[in-house]
Design goal:
Structural class of chain B: mainly alpha
Radius of gyration of chain B: 21 Å
Oligomer: heterodimer
Helix content of chain B: 55-70%
Distance between the termini of chain A: 90 Å
Structural class of chain A: alpha+beta
Radius of gyration of chain A: 28 Å
Number of domains of chain B: 1
Largest sheet of chain A: 4 strands, mixed
Order of helices and strands of chain B: EHHHHHHHHEHHH
Largest interface: A-B, 53 and 55 residues
Largest sheet of chain B: 2 strands, antiparallel
Number of helices of chain A: 10
CATH superfamily of chain B: Transmembrane di-heme cytochromes, Chain C
CATH topology of chain B: Fumarate Reductase Cytochrome B subunit
Helix content of chain A: 25-40%
CATH architecture of chain B: Up-down Bundle
Number of strands of chain A: 11
Chain lengths: 303, 229
């Protein structure tokens, strides 16, 4: 997509200038994943592979329905299955479609050192512009959801694009198109929030009193949201973070440290220069040579 | 290398080669490292053939530097041991800074400032190497948790900035104290230089009849003095 002038960036990695953003009269989009309607058919996984021409390597059976068993450079979305027992001992089969959450405040983009390797469009989609990627893995450290994966062959980082190429021409993402139960919906973020509200009401009427929307404020909200029947404890859904936010270590490294470090280096260099101006070089004087000669040849004069 | 008559050897050929391998690695590490540290310095990656190359080569240069600095430690640790005299010298640093070294406690082969540079790097280089391993994505990603890597990259940056500042002090001191650059390029200094900056070192060389860089040890010195120097 890098060659198509999108001109609607709201964020661009490792950039100190405002990126091209004139075409920003755009609604924020969101994908809404209603886990209570998911049947775990993996049509979304297949559609993702199909549309994006991804073919992960055939793996091994790991003793669970998860297949493949983790995200990888060619697996941008993955159904994660959890067998969970509530307090009364009732078994619930929790199925969550994992993948990039398209954070409003993306940790990957904050951590990225390569100008323009990660961008965020005005519609909220966070996209990797792979030709600018240097393969350092900083995005992996920045991400609160453990999503990006580095391909060892081309040393590029990959993740879900939210089908930015499809959305850009008015289509819905491939996974949304393929979902047979309507568990994955796509539209403007405000529409999806309203729709989620209706679903949550219904779930509450069915006895899921903790049903709710997962749109975590720690990353200023996300452009992929979940309807969870147990929104009070997201982590039971295969480790979905309860309160995701960009790590404080990443915040310090990419925040205060950068200006402080450059100022410290510059200060030291300037201090050196002004020392030279004030005190000047420390040069050996003829007296020093005479004294040294005297010392070295003291022995020669001895009897 | 032949040195002019009457000069003293400050650094052996091995030490000089070792030093410049370290120095060369350090400069390349600073350039490639800063390119990945601050967006405004990303252009430095072009010196290495682009971002991918800078990212790929940086840890290998770091590995060479670790080995090289280990060599410097082997060659220089003994003359860098801290002593009481160093504290007295530090107390008189204001006189040293204005080029008035007369009356300042006499200095052996290295002064307290040089020892500070030596031990700072002796600490920072291993820290940089170990934290660097944790963030060497291609080979070492699976061995530590992502949270560990976040801490490692922060420590790596802090240690790198500290090392750069120490390095600026080191380079400036070499430019400031005339004769120091030659001591590390051609390897020799004049006796007057030694008298002015490292009088204790000069006295120890004179006492044992050594041309430098270290005084002759016991037997050699005795043998030489028996020859009726």
């Amino acid at each position: 997509m890098a060659d198509l002038q999108s001109q609607d960036y709201i964020r661009r990695s490792a950039s100190t200038m405002t990126p091209p953003s004139i075409r920003n009269h755009e609604q924020e989009v969101a994908k809404l994943i209603d886990v209570s309607r998911c049947i775990g058919c993996k049509a979304c996984q297949s559609a993702c592979m199909e549309w994006n021409n991804l073919r992960p390597e055939i793996g091994h059976f790991e003793g669970s329905y998860d297949n493949p068993h983790d995200l990888d450079p060619s697996t941008w979305t993955l159904m994660r299955f959890t067998e969970w027992e509530d307090e009364e001992g009732n078994l619930e089969w929790l199925i969550r479609k994992d993948g990039c959450m398209h954070c409003e405040d993306p940790g990957c983009l904050k951590a990225c050192p390569a100008p323009g390797a990660i961008v965020q469009y005005a519609n909220g989609i966070v996209d990797f512009i792979s030709e600018n990627c240097i393969g350092c893995g900083y995005c992996v450290k920045g991400c609160p959801f453990n999503i990006p994966r580095i391909n060892p062959v081309d040393h590029k980082s990959y993740k879900c694009t939210l089908c930015s190429d499809r959305v850009g021409v008015g289509l819905e993402p491939a996974c949304v198109k393929a979902c047979p139960t309507g568990a994955i919906m796509f539209g403007s973020k405000s529409d999806m929030t309203v729709w989620a509200g209706e679903r949550i009401e219904e779930l509450k009427s069915r006895g899921f009193s903790n049903a709710g929307l997962y749109d975590p404020p720690g990353v200023s909200g996300t452009h992929v949201m979940y309807v969870l029947h147990h929104a009070d404890r997201p982590s039971i859904y295969a480790g979905l973070p309860d309160r995701p936010q960009i790590s404080g270590f990443v915040g310090a490294w990419k925040g205060i440290l950068k200006p402080v470090a450059l100022a410290g280096i510059a200060f030291t260099a300037v201090a050196g220069f002004f020392h030279w101006v004030v005190a000047g070089p420390n040069e050996v004087q003829p007296e020093d040579e005479a004294e040294a000669r005297h010392l070295l040849h003291k022995g020669d004069d001895a009897p | 290398m032949t040195h002019p008559k009457g000069t003293l050897t400050r650094n052996t050929t091995a030490a000089r080669i070792n030093h410049w391998i370290t120095g060369g690695c350090f400069v390349l590490l600073v350039l490639s490292g800063l390119s990945m540290f601050h967006p405004m310095l990303f252009f430095l990656s072009e010196l290495f053939g682009g971002g991918q190359w800078a990212r790929a080569i940086h840890p290998w240069i770091g590995t060479v530097l670790l080995v090289s600095y280990a060599g410097l430690i082997v060659q220089f640790w003994r003359d860098n041991l801290w002593s009481r005299d160093d504290i007295a010298w530090m107390r008189a640093i204001h006189r040293v800074l204005v080029n008035e070294e007369e009356g300042v406690p006499e200095v052996p082969r290295f002064n307290a400032g040089q020892k500070f540079v030596f031990w700072s790097m002796a600490l920072l280089v291993p820290v940089l190497f170990l934290t660097g391993l944790a963030i060497w994505e291609i080979y070492f990603f699976p061995y530590t948790s992502i949270e560990t890597q976040r801490i490692a990259v922060l420590i790596h940056s802090l240690a790198a900035i500290a090392a750069i500042i120490v390095w600026i002090v080191h380079v400036y001191a070499a430019l400031w104290v005339k004769g120091s650059i030659r001591a590390m390029t051609q390897g020799y200094v004049t006796p007057g230089w030694a008298w002015r900056h490292h009088r204790k070192w000069l006295r120890s060389l004179a006492a044992s009849g050594s041309p430098g860089p270290r005084p002759r040890s016991g037997d050699n010195a005795a043998a030489r003095s028996r020859k009726g120097r």
